[in-house]
Design a protein that fits this description.
single chain; alpha+beta; 3 domains; four-stranded antiparallel sheet; about 10% strand
């Protein structure tokens, strides 16, 4: 009987010890998890402080420097050439160009009466544009057979959508429009590029529409230009209905 009692006591002690070990293990696990959490927060705080210190010690680019970078890029220099001539890093040039593109971007839908003919994605700050045609009718298109028009061709296109700069009484006409000089960019914004005698005009897309355009281009980035145009046209038809 005594032996059985001793064995029973040992079993009880063993069970109690095992439970205590389990309790301590759970406690240790909680402590380790809390330690890991605190260590992560500490590392994130250190990283944020280091970034703030680097930014504080690094002067931002002046407006003149940014303008110089854009001008060099406008002149046809590659980003690498622009970086070398401006004396800045390639990453800096990329950031400045992206910022300039975003701030100056204009998207027009060139309409032939009620039918979209060409989408123009324009970046005046860097003298770049890209187009998508929605029709095979060269007369209806903004640039006819040209698939990759130059900036000079775009400027000529805008002027063609304005009254002649040599027209008699042009100064008074400009004053009536609130302009002090003949600027096709500003004239088209006012007249929508409408010219007496034809039904073609320019519809400027709002930011909501531009965001949708970007989503479509991102989704179709690996597709052909023709398939991109088809996807864009489906959206533009819906967008046009909302504007009417």
């Amino acid at each position: 009987m005594e032996i059985e009692s001793e064995k029973k006591d040992k079993d009880i002690n063993k069970t109690q010890n095992e439970r205590e070990i389990e309790r301590l293990n759970r406690k240790l696990k909680r402590v380790m998890e809390e330690y890991a959490k605190c260590a992560k927060e500490r590392d994130e705080l250190r990283a944020a402080i280091n970034v703030a210190k680097r930014k504080k010690g690094r002067p931002g680019l002046s407006t003149e420097k940014k303008a110089k970078i854009c001008t060099l890029y406008q002149q046809g220099n590659s980003m690498r050439q622009t970086a070398q001539k401006a004396g800045v890093s390639l990453g800096t040039v990329s950031n400045v160009i992206d910022e300039a593109k975003k701030s100056s971007r204009i998207v027009y839908v060139y309409m032939d009466r009620k039918k979209p003919a060409t989408l123009l994605d324009i970046y005046p700050a860097i003298n770049r544009l890209e187009i998508w045609n929605f029709t095979d009718d060269l007369i209806s298109r903004a640039f006819g057979s040209r698939e990759k028009p130059s900036w000079q061709e775009y400027e000529q296109f805008l002027e063609d959508r304005c009254m002649p700069r040599t027209r008699y009484g042009i100064k008074k006409e400009l004053e009536h429009m609130g302009l002090d000089s003949y600027d096709p960019f500003q004239i088209v914004e006012i007249t929508k590029g409408r010219v007496y005698g034809d039904g073609q005009w320019l519809a400027r897309m709002d930011q909501k529409g531009i965001d949708q355009i970007d989503c479509i281009l991102k989704k179709t980035s690996k597709k052909t230009k023709e398939k991109q145009a088809k996807a864009l046209l489906e959206f533009i038809d819906l967008w046009k209905e909302e504007q009417e």
